[in-house]
Amino acid sequence: MAELFGGSLDDARASIRSADVVDVIQSHPSAFDAILLDVDNGPEGLIRKANDALYDPKGLKAIRRALRPGGVIAVWSSGPNPPFSKRLRDAGFAVNEVAIRATAKRRGAHHVIWFATRPEGGR
Q: What whole-number distance in Å separates Cα of residue 53 and Cα of residue 73?
């Protein structure tokens, strides 16, 4: 994929970890500016039930703690999920839910990406 991303991983701020994302999130408080999740078909552990731990209230609070103030979590989904939007808000995030088309030709199914921000100065 280097041809798509050029030298983006050459930046000293970028790193790749081969580990369970839940373990990384839980063991790195206030460490990340952004966390991008595209591990299932959305905020339900459809592929792997254990992934539910990322999207439940406890998991979202752990993600919030792992983000620096002003940090953002982005979660892709194959469709809308109003209860997930509420869980994000309940976990203390400012939420922006964006509907997008599945293809660049503006056709096909609508997908959703949530951009949830940890407030500046928030704990």
A: 15
Sheet holding 94-101, edge to edge: 32-37, 67-77, 110-117, 94-101
Domain that holds residue 30: 20-117
Segments of the chain scoring below 70 in pLDDT: 1-2, 4-5, 39-40, 44-48, 122-123
Nearest-angstrom CA–CA distance, 97 and 25: 22
Is residue 10 one of the residues assigned to a domain? no
What digits encode the pLDDT tens for the residues 101-118?
877 777 777 889 999 999
CATH number of the domain residue 36 falls in: 3.40.50.150
- In whole angstroms, what is the distance from residue 91 CA to residue 43 CA? 14
